[in-house]
Amino acid sequence: MKKLADRLLHRFTNHETALSAAHHSIVQPLLSSNGFFILCFKLAHKITVLTLFYEIVSANVDFFSFLHKNSGSGRTDQGTSGLRHRNDRRMPPQGVRLHIQDRYVVMDNGILQVTLSKPGGIITGIQYDGIDNVLEVRNKETNRGYWDLHWNEPGGKGIFDVISGVTFRVIVETEEQVEISFVRTWDPSLEGKYIPLNIDKRFIMLRGSSGVYSYGIYEHLKEWPGFELGETRIAFKLRKDKFHYMAMADDRKRIMPFPDDLCKGRCQTLDYQEASLLTAPCDPHLQGEVDDKYQYSCENKDLRVHGWISFDPPVGFWQITPSNEFRSGGPLKQNLTSHVGPTTLAVFHSTHYAGKTMMPRFECGEPWKKVFGPVFIYLNSTTNRDESLWLWDDAKIKMMGEVESWPYSFVASEDYPKSEERGKARGRLLIRDRFVSNDLISAQGAYVGLAPPGDAGSWQIECKGYQFWATADEAGYFSIENVRPGDYNLYAWVPGFIGDYRNDTIVSVTTGCKIEMGDIVYEPPRDGPTLWEIGIPDRKASEFFIPDPDPTLVNRALVHPQDRFRQYGLWQRYTDLYPYGDLVYTIGVSDYRRDWFFAQVPRKKGDVHEGTTWQIRFKLENIDQKANYKLRVAIASATLAELQVRVNDPEAIRPLFTTGLIGRDNSIARHGIHGVHILYAVNIPGNRLVQGDNTIFLKQPRCNGPFQGIMYDYIRLEGPPS
């Protein structure tokens, strides 16, 4: 405990976050219960309660039992004392037991029992805290807890496949741990029927752990035929009579509709199949709301824990992903989480918010192996129904403990390197932009990562290897930890600056290495001084004007300002706001926060749609007719769109610049505020500009449907080089 106190004091003296009165009511009993904590409490205004929780979790101290024992009552006003199975709090005398039957395998550690089909490796049941099965017992056994994928032969049709093993074996069986394997092997007789991969699904249960781990090893041999992989994940279908409350972020948690509410007679399907208007829901409080699973998507960097709560009995079911190293697309890739079902997903790879550019193609002659996971399925409970919502807070604390424990020490596969077998790289990223500062600028907040070798920015569509990312501190220093051995490029992007950085040197990570990168200088794209700019270069469109949704098509859980873009049907609001003419933005007068619509979409005209042309009006003096000006257009997302640029002549037959058809992100329909980022540079000859008033026309002519369009990230006009 003394060691814990030292760590807490160190934290107290290095944090400046004020504790609210509510936080004090939680922390007070803990701090006043022991002498050394009294000193800590004098500094408690400098730490958040969550940080305190995290330190206790890291020290393997059970906060809830400690608080219960020392607070002088059986519970606190916050109702935490009844929470159970916090951070493996109980060490039951029973070790982990493995029961092998003819058709099933059961792992049991005295806290929960997990039943899997044999040799398929489908989770058919999870018994926990008095619930005989938290999975939907009315579903077929193959539709409860399973690994799946979506694939196709090159040029062929997509095939959905619930992965079922054909052989079962025990990898580890001790009182402390059980690890079991379900393997499906491929041979040429299966060509066209199954994806040409050997797939090894693993499940791990630990002594005293209130959950189960799972990971998969996918392998394609060199001589096998090629294929494309669209998606792979783990899916859980929970009992709809129990789990009604979903949480995937502090600002996105709610009572959810029943799956029956999405059936004919209870809802109206909107512009696409996944979006429904609840017209006669089982819960009348949800009448008139919109449900759409894409409203609960999340970026990888924030997608650590999500799941469901049952109120009777009070039980939580949570999917925890402690690392993003095995996920496709880097930290900004968006994936599905939990949605009506009740369904919980652990998505490892998908094409959502990216399209076919995110679909890896494997050729005959290309060997490949990748480990997806482990992820952790965590269950918790409380004895008091009034404390049910605290299960979400407990799950977040458990998640932090899992993140701190990564990479896990107990995984048996040699394809999963332990901590001592991994390396690290560190350095400092600086920015050189002489039009901003004569000095080098620290890349504060930069995302810096190691990903497979490729072009600048290729990390955002990379989906065959592993990625490791860190955020630079205020001085630009970064440290990338726990990197698997292999060859990588160093990539970065910096909020507030356009472009992507790539270091040309291959970074070879070996076991136990510590690579010092030193000072690295990034020079963002620039030819001349900024004449004007629109937006913030942060790879998103969230700073632009996001309208209020149609009041008849609202999800009332998305009331926070940062979630406005997730409301359904915002693309339709463009026609409401601009029924006859398109957006006109005047430099020096307009404000992008209120005058630049977040997406350039078609206008609906009767039963059809028409393309739109936006105008940027600006004044220029002292034009150099012989020089080139540069228009930089950063696009946050594009869906079957085209951007045509014209200068001072909207009727010109040939545009000065066109992207051609770009993008399959579908972020407009799926409530994403970005997709795959693209940066364009347009040369504008000085003789195209005039003294005084000028206009740049941005035309998006593609209009076969309402979702074709562009989300801009940032636009800048630069003067000639000086």
Automatic annotation (TrEMBL):
In its UniProt record, which GO terms are filed under biological process? carbohydrate metabolic process
Name the Enzyme Commission number(s) assigned to this protein: 4.2.2.23
Please list the GO terms describing molecular function.
carbohydrate binding; rhamnogalacturonan endolyase activity
Q: Keyword Amino-acid biosynthesis: yes or no?
A: no
This chain belongs to which protein, by name? rhamnogalacturonan endolyase
Instruction: Give the family this protein belongs to, as stated in its UniProt record.
Output: Belongs to the polysaccharide lyase 4 family.
Ranges for domain Rhamnogalacturonan lyase come to 444-516, 530-717
Keyword annotations from UniProtKB, A to Z? Lyase, Secreted, Signal
Localization per record: Secreted
Bias class Polar residues marks the residues at 72-81
Q: Which organism is it from?
A: Thlaspi arvense
| InterPro entries in UniProt | Carb-bd-like_fold, Gal_mutarotase_sf_dom, Galactose-bd-like_sf, GH-type_carb-bd, Polysacch_Lyase_4, RG-lyase_II, RG-lyase_III, Rhamnogal_lyase
The catalytic activity, as recorded, is: Endotype eliminative cleavage of L-alpha-rhamnopyranosyl-(1->4)-alpha-D-galactopyranosyluronic acid bonds of rhamnogalacturonan I domains in ramified hairy regions of pectin leaving L-rhamnopyranose at the reducing end and 4-deoxy-4,5-unsaturated D-galactopyranosyluronic acid at the non-reducing end
**The organism sits in which domain of life?**
Eukaryota
Family matches, as Gene3D superfamilies: 2.70.98.10, Carboxypeptidase-like, regulatory domain, Galactose-binding domain-like
Start and end residues of each stretch annotated as Disordered? 72-92
Pfam families the record matches: CBM-like (PF14683), fn3_3 (PF14686), Rhamnogal_lyase (PF06045)
Instruction: Name a GO CC annotation attached to this entry.
Output: extracellular region
